[in-house]
Design brief:
Distance between the termini of chain A: 38 Å
Strand order of the largest sheet of chain A: 2-3-4-7-8-9-10-13
Shape of chain A: globular
Structural class of chain A: alpha+beta
Oligomer: homotetramer
Strand content of chain A: 35-45%
Order of helices and strands of chain A: EEEHHHEEEEEEHHEEEE
Chain lengths: 313, 313, 313, 313
Amino acid sequence: MADRPEPARAARTAVLGPNQYGKAETRVLKVTRDGAVHHVRDLNVSVALSGDMDEAHYSGSNAHVLPTDTAKNTVYAFAREHGIDSPEAFAVRLARHFTDSREAIRRARVRVEEYAWERIDVSSPARHSFARRGRETRVAQVTRDGEGFEVLGGLTDLVVMNTTDSEFRGYAKDAYTTLQEDGDRILATEVSARWRYGWTGAAGAEPPAWDASYEQAVRHLLTAFADTYSHSLQQTLYAMGARVVEHRPEIEEIRFSLPNKHHFRVDLESFGLTNDAADGAVYFAADRPYGLIEATVLRPGADARIPDDTTTR
Amino acid sequence: MADRPEPARAARTAVLGPNQYGKAETRVLKVTRDGAVHHVRDLNVSVALSGDMDEAHYSGSNAHVLPTDTAKNTVYAFAREHGIDSPEAFAVRLARHFTDSREAIRRARVRVEEYAWERIDVSSPARHSFARRGRETRVAQVTRDGEGFEVLGGLTDLVVMNTTDSEFRGYAKDAYTTLQEDGDRILATEVSARWRYGWTGAAGAEPPAWDASYEQAVRHLLTAFADTYSHSLQQTLYAMGARVVEHRPEIEEIRFSLPNKHHFRVDLESFGLTNDAADGAVYFAADRPYGLIEATVLRPGADARIPDDTTTR
Amino acid sequence: MADRPEPARAARTAVLGPNQYGKAETRVLKVTRDGAVHHVRDLNVSVALSGDMDEAHYSGSNAHVLPTDTAKNTVYAFAREHGIDSPEAFAVRLARHFTDSREAIRRARVRVEEYAWERIDVSSPARHSFARRGRETRVAQVTRDGEGFEVLGGLTDLVVMNTTDSEFRGYAKDAYTTLQEDGDRILATEVSARWRYGWTGAAGAEPPAWDASYEQAVRHLLTAFADTYSHSLQQTLYAMGARVVEHRPEIEEIRFSLPNKHHFRVDLESFGLTNDAADGAVYFAADRPYGLIEATVLRPGADARIPDDTTTR
Amino acid sequence: MADRPEPARAARTAVLGPNQYGKAETRVLKVTRDGAVHHVRDLNVSVALSGDMDEAHYSGSNAHVLPTDTAKNTVYAFAREHGIDSPEAFAVRLARHFTDSREAIRRARVRVEEYAWERIDVSSPARHSFARRGRETRVAQVTRDGEGFEVLGGLTDLVVMNTTDSEFRGYAKDAYTTLQEDGDRILATEVSARWRYGWTGAAGAEPPAWDASYEQAVRHLLTAFADTYSHSLQQTLYAMGARVVEHRPEIEEIRFSLPNKHHFRVDLESFGLTNDAADGAVYFAADRPYGLIEATVLRPGADARIPDDTTTR
């Protein structure tokens, strides 16, 4: 490094702004054996660290740079030492470790995806066979900045559909509007949601029961999706969010990204066929373009802190 | 066309070989209403036709070319007129139609993917809310060539795992072998399978109950995967295939493509940690490269007719 | 709607936060004919609108909801009426239209991807044959909020590699560090970048020459990538950003997301083979996990306004 | 193994059919240094072996099973020992090695994908900076069965488009035909091709210059695509294949899979706009469904040996 003099700071024509670095997508499977009954947790862990990293960028000094390879090793070692109770608890432990262990690291963000496995039904008492469930992917994000934690739970890839009780009418029209009103349409979407927990790691505050909270949040949003007579995907989104916030006091806000997975009723008139919804219709499932509805629903008084693109990543 | 003279056949320096054309990936959803209880079948249908198509290629004459757009329309119209009983029955109907309706079309191959939906549990008696199941994708392929049918059932994307009862030892070694033997490893794979039915549409022959046959075939291959103490993925593959062939007389052969989804036990010794399988280990789920095991299992006396790449598409 | 009374606002147990909606991924190709010489612009356009949308969410009133289908129609009609000069100019035009035309719409964000085509070399003077270039994807994002515009340019999917002049040494170490220092490694990444233009649509301010600016920004970041002797990907990132900011006065800040596409030198010692970098080595191109380096580089005095996840979408 | 008696062969209710196994997707980058000028070859190599593997499936004996991990090691060691002259030559060398080295292995099939890199233009004489080209992916497949070789070259992902000189008229019509004839449409496709070389490794027969042959084959098929006034994608396919076969004596047959990447002219009449092709039209680039045209073109007298699904994998 000696022969690469750092430009005097005054002379800089460009300066460093917000930055973070880390190891993304460390895939870790933890098996726990309870005699012949095995349990698994299957995670994809992404760690992002920030802090005193100016010189790494300006002069190429790596003195403060803990290698991303070390973040990977830490994920594996922690899975073995402490097990994986839940994505949220595991991410809290990792985020605390990184910010506590090195002065140069002031902020850690840990993102986790969890893949669910269900047991394959067998007659023997052994329980070590699994099929990947494949419905939604559970996600969590824990950020530690200074002392406090921010914990997001959530999910992606949950495709849901109502085959009736959905209409779209009475909308605004302009010179480019050709859409026909529809009193009985299919409503389908692929739910991506992130919810923020009130827990911030304050002394004496008990963390939520993360797994139970996840299950109940999913149950509530599915129930609201199914039970709501929908005038629009916006209205359904609000109903889903409101039901979660109302029933889960540990959750302060929830943000959704809901692509409208359009199913268009096919026009079969040319072939002498009707195709009415009431009668059991045939639909074309379209790929692109698609409507995309995004919104946050909050407990009154809570702050909206989940940024825009968090749910569309 | 008049001003584009066809080269005399004798002069041809290149000739047409095997060919087919059609519409791929027509996405059709059929809803059936039984009062407030709705049922759905959600398919992706690909039609490939062949026959007397030489002039289409040589001179650009489209006289024998039924547009692919027409194949798409036919899929939608048939779904409305006849409903969708099962992927196999729907594909049989389409293949028969194309080969019967036009002399120039001598062979039709219809491939179908089916996406499964499960009901969202609600308290109301209405039943029109669904979540896409997301585990495996069911596939079917029906080929009609002349009078007979060939029907393949199958599936893709079924990820399964045994967390013990798998070893890999006693293998051949050469100068490039560094792999260590393992007496207790994870066995995980993503099952892609195609099975061929004995039914060929012969007069008087009753077709199988397609949906029931599919469910039972999946049940048997899963059971064999779970119950087999595995010395290799090859052995497990054979056990899965044999069990299907033994229990399902309507199935003549089954071909698998089984990628070995490697889960490597992480070496944690540097951190003063053991990581034994018996003790509940931590694994790295690798992406690439991966072992890939492919084989057909047959009823004795049956012909192996499912080609190589059918299961790796 | 009459029979669905809106809950009194006071009684709400959940409230609406930030929200937007629109049509995503409208795929539009515009051909321009200049005699026998054709030109193409091939875009993927995503429109997101926000404003007075509370009732759409709370009560299902669609009175203020311009259908997303209308946004799609507008994209097509504008492409025909006004042509597509550049992704940025087209997005500016659309964003202005949506916010100017309806009082309820206060903010419009238009995201564009552009796919580049190169001409197929032929001997004839006709120029209507193209091959999709496939290197990077150009992106743009225009936001209009009130009167001002914010314009981001950028790109994704640009994979680059230096086969030497890269080292990683002198880094911090802790109990979980096992990585060996490397004085001659491969540095490869897939560049995702977004840069913010100073232009905000103020009266009298001439917009940049968008296409030329894009080309030059790409040229500068590529040159900096190639010319920098790298002590880390962080340092290379800064060099890339600084060069763009220094040479392009129209650009205020640039944010990168740079995954470290690890190429590990294979250990071939067991086979009696050396594998030194200096000697022409063999590398394993790894998929996951990967280091991920993200940072903003700014013109001194400029604000860092490009959020975190913009570059990792 | 002792305690797992093999069922007597006579008793078998299911038998093993065609099978192969190996390591898929070994990602290898080879750098060659010629002073400060570096060259790279970047491959994805998949090896599939077959032979005397019955017992591996029936009884779980691995005595004849060379681990797939060894195939991976061999790829890396050969890249270092022998370099990578071309995908075809490298695959020939590997296939020969596997079949020659072990009696139990009777057939080896090696599939290779190659990713092209172009140099980043810099002013310095150093030449070690590259950008991944990203247009097409080159592919090769070498099979050795007994003594002879079969070599396929080819490519995938090559997206091409003609913005005029394409029509579709005079086609067959049935009750489900609604398509309108079009005298000036866009013709776009994503070329997947595999061609078979006449070279089989016979004594004294010189192999083709693989890299030059690849480049010329691509040039010819692109030229034919661009120069053909198209009455259908079938006709264009034949023209592309015929031109390759006519100009490249080393190539016996070529098979294409050409999805019709539909670009539909948008109907803008409702907005008072024309949208004629002659005038510079706006098109909607559709995703699904799509026409799919597959055919082989042969040198007269050659056999058609490339199977169906080879080009659609």
